[in-house]
Design brief:
Length: 430
């Protein structure tokens, strides 16, 4: 067997003939062999599905739960810099040793007769679930990777299930029908358990799916809501429900720098999971919550992993104008299964100059192809680079102190930039 985490991750890439293979039969069999389905992995399990907003919702649930003294664990994907980011307990990333132990457990179970083939994601999910199940948790928060009904995470029954948003993404696997995508995401709902609908723009199929299995639905705008000042950064108020139907209100909440729909959804999910929300504790948690790669500022650079039109519209609304006389650059690299035109159109009014970068790999998209799309939509492409790092190097020679750069389009684009020092223009001499 492999010995190190790096060796295990290389090994996982060889286990299955395709990278994504939707279905629960294989992963469920291995989970049973590992004993993961014999008892709950935590006292409460919250599962989060959706097109956008999963990561920020999970991060806020985790932060608020831990602020209330609960022992919380999370599973997310993908990672930005380290695989260890995918599994946390009490806010700390899983160690290499713990993940290696988990992968050994997965491999031992997988190789029992008859042996079972697993994808990289399926093996990683089982490893994460083993780590969480052996951490004696009050609450586990699980992020669905793709879809919902047939995602490996869905082998675990959620005590509270969340669907954040529904938009077109992963069309090769989920299709272009929002109603069908909604049904797939809603596949994480369970009979007689709370189903939290975290957007007022969900297709009807999400609520219909909850009703069909007698899940207890709690929708944003009806069961719970938020109200805020007119400008970004103003305090806001949350109104929601306990599991017994009694009303809750928290006011004067700080802006977490993440979508308030997701913040309100996180609070509603925690209330339904039985957490008694304390105003000052919630305030403290929301002030300190962080999420890498989501509107993350590094000097003049804003890094955001948004890779579909819905996410790009949110970024465009939140992106401040550069100082007077400055240019708003965009360094963009995208995968070939994403809606590049939709992302570009959402960002176009905010961007003065574009730097397109190539992402390598089977799903990669070339900078030249991105540039053609931007130009055809009326944008100005300044440069095409062979990689995100090469795009940064080119921009380093052009940045003025008043300029700002949005780096976006993919986890791969942002991850490469996070792993390197980003150039900052020197202040002008007076």
């Amino acid at each position: 067997m492999p010995n190190t985490l790096v060796e295990w991750l290389h090994h996982l890439e060889t286990l299955h003939p395709v990278g994504i293979d939707m279905g629960l039969e294989r992963v469920s069999l291995v989970a049973k062999r590992m004993g993961l389905l014999e008892r709950p992995i935590a006292k409460q399990v919250i599962t989060v599905a959706g097109t956008n907003g999963k990561g920020s919702t999970l991060a806020m649930i985790d932060a608020v739960a831990r602020a209330h003294g609960l022992r919380a664990g999370t599973y997310t994907s993908p990672h930005l810099l380290r695989y260890n980011e995918r599994v946390t307990v009490d806010g700390r990333e899983a160690s290499d040793q713990r993940l290696v132990e988990g992968f050994q457990q997965v491999e031992n179970a997988r190789l029992q007769e008859p042996s079972i083939s697993l994808t990289y994601f399926e093996a990683g999910t089982l490893c994460a679930l083993w780590c969480l199940a052996n951490a004696t948790l009050d609450i586990a928060i699980l992020e669905v990777g793709l879809g919902g009904r047939l995602d490996a995470v869905n082998i675990i029954d959620a005590d509270v299930a969340i669907v954040t948003t529904i938009a077109l993404d992963h069309a090769n696997f989920l299709g272009n029908d929002l109603e069908q995508i909604g049904r797939e995401k809603a596949g994480i709902f369970r009979p007689l358990k709370p189903a939290v609908l975290g957007s007022q723009s969900l297709p009807p199929s999400v609520l219909e799916s909850a009703i069909a299995i007698a899940a207890h639905s709690y929708a944003l705008g009806t069961a719970f809501s938020h109200s805020a000042g007119e400008t970004v950064g103003n305090p806001w108020c949350w109104h929601g429900l306990n599991a017994d139907g009694s009303t809750l209100s928290l006011d004067g909440l700080p802006d977490p720098g993440l979508p308030l729909d997701n913040a309100a959804t996180a609070l509603q999910a925690l209330a339904l999971a039985g957490v008694t929300l304390q105003l000052n504790t919630v305030r403290k948690a929301l002030r300190t919550v962080t999420l890498s790669g989501r509107m993350q500022w590094v000097g003049q650079w804003c890094l955001d992993v948004g890779h579909n039109p819905h996410a790009a519209h949110y970024v465009a609304r939140r992106l401040p104008a550069p100082p007077k006389g400055g240019r708003q650059w965009a360094l963009i690299g995208m995968l070939n299964d994403k809606d590049a035109d939709g992302v570009i159109q959402a960002l176009l009014p905010s961007i003065t100059d574009w730097v397109c970068v190539t992402l390598e790999g089977e799903r990669g998209r070339s900078a030249d192809e991105l540039a053609k799309r931007i130009t055809s939509l009326g944008g100005h492409v300044y440069y095409c680079a062979d990689s995100p790092a090469a795009g940064v190097a080119k921009l380093a020679k052009q940045l003025a102190p008043e300029d700002r750069v949005l780096a976006t389009g993919s986890f791969f684009t942002v991850a490469e930039l996070l792993a390197m020092p980003l150039p900052q223009a020197a202040p002008r001499a007076r």
